[in-house]
Amino acid sequence: MKRAIRRPHATVTALHARVLARLTGAAEARRSERFFADQGRVVAALVGLSVLGSAAVAAGPFILRHLIDTSLPTGRVRDLAVPVLLLCAVLVFESTVLSVRMALIARLGGVVSVRIRQTVNAHLQRLPFAFFPRSQQGEVMTVMSSDVLAAQNAISATVQAVICRLADIVVGTVVVFVLDWRLSGAVMVFAPATLVIIRSGRRRLAALSQRQREFDGQLMSQVADTSSVSGALHVRLFDRVDYERERFDAAGAELLAAAREQARLTSRVRFLVNLGIVATMTAVVTLGAWLVSSDRTTLGTVAALGGALLVSFGPLSSAVDLRSELAGAGASFRRIFALLDVPEDEARVLAAGSPAAVAVPRARAAPAPAPASGVGLAPVGLELMLDDVWFAYDQAVPGPARAAGAAPHEYPGPDDPSWNLRGVTLRVAAGTTTAVVGASGAGKSTIAYLASGVHRPQRGRVLLGGVPLDAIPPARLHAAIGVVPQDPHLFHDTIAANLRYGRLDATDDELRAALDAASLSALLDRLPEGLATRVGARGYRLSGGERQRLAIARVLLQSPQVLVLDEATSALDTLSEAAVRSALDRLAVGRTCLVIAHRLSTVIDADRIHVMDHGRVVEDGTHRDLLADGGAYARLYRPSTV
Question: For labeling, which of 81, 109, 179, 390 is most exposed (least CB within 10 Å)?
């Protein structure tokens, strides 16, 4: 029974989606039904209110005809009172219906806007990391801002201008025929031409709107690049302020030219539409005057018919602006669904949702930090292994960004230069420290990305505790592996919020203990707001060493079983490096550690050292053994110690 009741609302919603797709000229607009599929009752209420409002409007011309033809000739006040009061009542009722209708439209638009943003954001969080280095931040921001707003306006405008105004047009046309069929014939001569004019500008408006969206995305991308902390710093370091201004002005000029062309086309079409309306009204008035003079109709009928024409043709005048707005919305829908069509991290989705997902051994809960050392017992480490791993960044990019001509799961041959890693086998025994060294571009950081599960290999396997990473639920995987990168990201938030990224339920006492273990107690002492201090964009209120130690404290709270250090001290001065090294030594106790190192002096004590060259492991062994062999490691080590 409930399903039968809901079916009409679902039908109304589906009809709305089809009309939207038809008007925007975008096949993707039909897919927008997912954002308002449960709003059928609201849309149905809007249709019902439109019918009521149109019925009230339909009564107006007949009341006006009675007033002119019957009441005015008598000259009696009591004969005028009833039709005048009726007209006032019709206007009040129509205004009430309009206000309720606008409130429902605003509600529908708000729901749609929030849901699109929620859907896009959730999709972005599930995309593989490989998507982000290849995408422009400004394009994503454009989708989340102007494109979402255009889609929201289109859905609301479709209800307002199509579903609601269509009732006014239909009712007005019926009223015209009922009042006088001869005058309605004059309307039918001119009305089709007006509709043809509106339709003729649709494709050009759509093309111009697409150009505007593209230029807008370029501007947003430039702003995102140059207004970030690192971008703004480099603009000033190279004194490129004028260059960036000129580049922005040039792109803005392109956007302005497209906007002007669209405005010219819109104004031209609107002029022709208004010209058609004026011609229609002139024909009706002229014919009506002749009919009145020959006693074939009444003055009230002509006046009433003019009012009905205003109801019918009024929406057509604003339909030109609606066409322009909806044409732009078509481009926005295409951009939104192009982003939503980028494949998600399939391995991550399957691992999270599969009942057969394998769990790795859990870490023991770390006890409260001891006051003396600031660090509790570390969890039991797990073995980490890369087994015949092949990886290419170009093949890691999902969907449309994938290299041209490369079919899914079809990768280049072993001799292709696009491979960043070639058959790497590397084992980090539980509780030991293994270092990966090599020249720049050898593939060291790529190993860190693979070991931490950020990227997945195209061939071979990465295993944690003997379990492939693909089979481990994401939450469990990233709880087991902690990463301290060379340039850790700090959010524009408080110290406490940045630390709790390691463990969301950490108490303030645990945060302070982690800071103490990372040799950052002095930082809190000099900050008047303590843990509530905001670190600034990317943590630029802190020094490089402080940012690095804050990242270490965050990983301490995470309490991982495996620790990946990606050149965590290479960019620090001697004093900062010493403080960070001390914090890292505390963090590494009892854990499985994979150290990506540029300075070979920092990995002398590693249990095992692997030397990378052009994506391959060319040597491995202890520091002493590798030096004795006199190979690649020895050649790297000697210059570094000069």
Answer: 81
